[in-house]
Amino acid sequence: MNPHLDKLHPYPFEKLRQLFAGVTPNPEYAAISLGIGEPKHPTPAFIQKALAHGVAGLANYPSTAGTDALRGAIAGWLERRYGVPALNPATQVLPVNGSREALFGIAHCVIDASRPAPLIVCPNPFYQIYEGAAYLAGAEPYFVNSEPGRNFGCDYASVPADIWPRVQLLYLCTPGNPTGATLSLEDWKQLFALSDRYGFVIAADECYSEIYHTSAAPLGALEAAHQLGRSGGETPYARLIVFSSLSKRSNVPGMRSGFVAGDPAVIRKFLLYRTYCGGAMAPPVQAASIAAWGDETHVQENRVKYREKFALVTPLLKEVMDVELPDAGFYLWADVRRSGLSDTEFARRLYAEYNVTVLPGSYLARDAHGINPGSGRIRMALVAEVDEGVEAAQRIVQFCKSLKSL
């Protein structure tokens, strides 16, 4: 067997299952899960209709590159959303079966394991796919801790100078999972300068880009590159690729539809890799995806729902824990140390006593540079409808107040 498999950590939800083993939750309460970031808002009817009408295409093998119409729809959305020059749909856009498989696969395409001790830089806490991709590509992850004082941004200037020459790929997530933090133009300027100097590829995971809580949409990687003069010339978007998905934007996590876009040289190699993997998107999913990328009304309505939830839930929770409205995304990243419990004990007791599931922050991070930046925190996914989110918050407040009365 591949020895790299032995380096993989259990997935956070497997750790959570083990944490809850033997616990019978209080039967007085119906179960509410804030543990998994799975959108629960209804899938728009027009997307369902387009999916059903697309079944005629099942009689054909789909191309890994997708149809011209799908790539054109994605390129059109990128141009409208980020104000970037029109990307070439044939060379700069590639549909994928959800961003997860693409984020994993890109490491196998980029990493040259023949070079000594290759590294992949990851934020910490992080989406665990980044770590698994690093190990199975023959590299090692190098974690850069998020810092509360930087609005949970990572200080890449803190990375030692002798690390960067070994870096071949840098994963980042903006808006971040679990913190909701976004990158500024100055952050991007710094990262592009490092990429230019050391030659590594930047993989920007932007799956939460359409859920934000202010009037200003988060700055995208392609948008930043364009503003910094990196979208044209012989090497447009040099060593930059972005990953996005319809799962959160359009409430279709089961459809498994996303895209990769950016540097045509990287896209060309990634298409070759995915052709061998059999990573073609099913024709009905392509048809539904075209419809979804072409409509913004349902995205705006979805965003209103999240804003309503966060506006109601965040003030309730602030009574009993340190939590702030994030820049974007559908998570709350809360410090629960005021409770006097560790993040794991907090999650276990909350589940046992109030039947609410949250994810311990330490499960989403690794010990790095002397700390685990997720320790003492919990991640709450506000993915259900408003009433359920408010009910969960009220139970959490009751739980925390009960601790203080002991």
TrEMBL record:
One of its GO terms (biological process) is lysine biosynthetic process via diaminopimelate. It comes from the Bacteria. Its cofactor is pyridoxal 5'-phosphate. Keywords: Aminotransferase, Transferase. Pfam families: Aminotran_1_2. Its EC number is 2.6.1.17. InterPro entries: Aminotransferase_I/II_large, DapC_beta/gammaproteobac, LL-DAP_aminotransferase, PyrdxlP-dep_Trfase, PyrdxlP-dep_Trfase_major, PyrdxlP-dep_Trfase_small. GO terms for molecular function: pyridoxal phosphate binding; succinyldiaminopimelate transaminase activity. Residues 32-383 form the Aminotransferase class I/classII large domain. This is Succinyldiaminopimelate transaminase. It comes from Massilia atriviolacea.
